Amino acid sequence: LTPQNEFAVEYTATTDKTTVVNLSHHSFFNLKGEAGGTITDNILQIDADHITPTDSFLIPTGEVRPVAGTAYDFTTAHAIGDMIDSDDEQLAAGRGYDMNWVLSREDNGQVETVATRYEPQSGRAMDVATDQVAIQFYSGNFFDGSYDGKYGKPLSFRESVVFETQKYPDAVNHDNFPSVVLNPGEEYTHTCIYKFILP
User: Fold this and answer.
1) How far is CA 102 from CA 32, 94, 169, 194, in A?
2) What amino acid positions are annotated as catalytic residues?
3) Contact assessment for residue 59 and residue 16, using Cβ atoms and an 8 Å cutoff
């Protein structure tokens, strides 16, 4: 936690044998507060022109697909719920958003803001910054009230979101994805910063 209202996560890894490394962070956020209601009215912008589509089991197919003209286009900020129930087989399989976006940035090791989310009722916002090349956005589609959050309130359908900065998921099985292999003598580093903006 930083004095700038940030939750910063820093990863490092080394290995003595060649291995796969693609770490991420899976915190759930609702800017209205725990059990505060739907996130579908939140305004989201993701700096990404492509996604890595998935099959019916939500596993990447290996394709890299443009988002322009689809329900996955958050290059211009709009409400998460605008197209979440579109007639799209991937949205149907995931019951909403659960997809990896390919960030429109250079893989240069610099930490940059890649996504911004605004909650209109409270006026709170959250920026996501990273040095990674991709981000998984999940819209809380499988919560049904049977799990409790940190303060004991039930987690309900689409009442929280996740932003996981990462390399492409399942990259080890797709030669066209950037490598996630770490070799002896190399160091894996990864920074993810969630910055909270109050009204």
Assistant:
1) 28, 18, 11, 18
2) 26, 164
3) no
**What residues pair up with 5 in beta bridges, in sequence order?**
none
Rounded Cα distance between 96 and 145, Å, is: 17
Phi, psi values for residue 123, rounded to 5°: 80, 5
Q: Which residues contact 36 (CB under 8 A, 6 or more apart)?
A: 30, 159
The contacts of residue 92 (CB under 8 Å, 6+ apart) are: none
Residue 171 main-chain phi, psi, to 5 deg = -65, -30
Print pLDDT tens along the chain (199 aa): 999 999 999 999 999 999 999 999 999 999 999 899 999 999 999 999 999 999 989 999 999 999 999 999 999 999 999 999 999 999 999 999 999 999 999 999 999 999 999 999 999 999 999 999 999 999 999 999 998 988 999 999 999 999 999 999 999 999 999 999 999 999 999 999 999 999 9
